[in-house]
Amino acid sequence: MAPFDPWSVAQDYVRKINHASRGGLPAQPLARLRRSCELLGENPSAAAIVHGDLAHSNLLEGTRLWLLDWEYAQRSDPLMDVACVLAYYPARAHTWLNWRRPAG
To answer: Residue 62 sits in a domain of what CATH number?
Structure first.
């Protein structure tokens, strides 16, 4: 499984936006995005297989919990799935943050 390549993903979105709008995106946001992607690549954390689209619609409960729709699965930082959940459900971020705090 190939590692997550955010710059490649961003370039694909840029192509789609440019095609739809018949114009170009400003250079400054793209430069900032490229630098952010480079910084992500320098992250020394160990990669893991992540789902990449962890939302309630991709869960099926039966005799156990199943993760569905692995279309965006990739090797990435294990916190990527946590980031997905927080992005999809920002009102629940306080629950995650409180759960992660050490007692006392």
So the answer is: 1.10.510.10
